[in-house]
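Need tokens for this chain, all 297 residues.
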Amino acid sequence: MTPITEVEGRRLTLSNLDKVLYPATGTTKGELLHHYARTAAPLLAHLAGRPASFLRYPDGAEGETFFSKNPPPGTPDWVKVADVPRSARRGGDRGRQVVVDGLAALMWAANLVVEFHTPQWRAAAPAVADRIVFDLDPGAPASVTECCRVALWLRERMDADGLHAYAKTSGAKGVHLLVPVRPAPSADVSAYAKRLAQEAEAAMPSLVVHRMTRSLRPGKVFVDHSQNSAAKTTATPYTVRARERPTVSAPVTWDEVAACAEGRARLAFLMDDIPGRLDEHGDLMAPLFEGGAALPS
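Here are the structure tokens for all 297 residues:
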């Protein structure tokens, strides 16, 4: 029998709760939904006001995945949907995307088995970014250790510009840096991020590459600045990834980043690690909501 539950006055049908989504750990869909319910407060804060894109993996991490920006078929009429200029996405004039604005909408989306991804701007101000993102992606044999070394360099470099970075695991192989800024056109934020990626490569040519060309990446950290484009999105903090194990894109302290850079720690967190981390640290990315400084001229 398919369970029906009520969340914030909305009736939700939750399906296939015993289905194993992560064979490596035996993690079920019910356990995934439980993760989203218990991390709802910080996750919803990071989703608030932003058009959500979904990487769906309904048959589990080893099954087919597909990326969806349009509201999925059967989206309830009570789920908030925003008009988004496709110039901030790609192609035509306007599109529509879900904005996850409460626990009921979060659990409805989680029941579809998704990663949550959001742009660096809000639906009310398309293509006007309020944060910078760097995706630090290691090319083997480089690892998260090298990513953390690059993260520390970028943090210090942005501190010099009056900008303050916050780190999280990507939930895959690397590290994400998020930096709150005074709202500015996405094109300006993209240009600044690219310039810093180029500076990082000039400062650490044996460690960093700023171009996506795969032949350049073995043994180096690709500083991906392209996700600052208005059309791009990044995995939202606390989302579970469609990987071999249910790893989470988890905020981390700079002490943890430094320990990782020195080879004293490896940054990887599973769903069950997150409640304890929230109890100990709170949401380490909460300062993003306080706003940031203007981009340097």
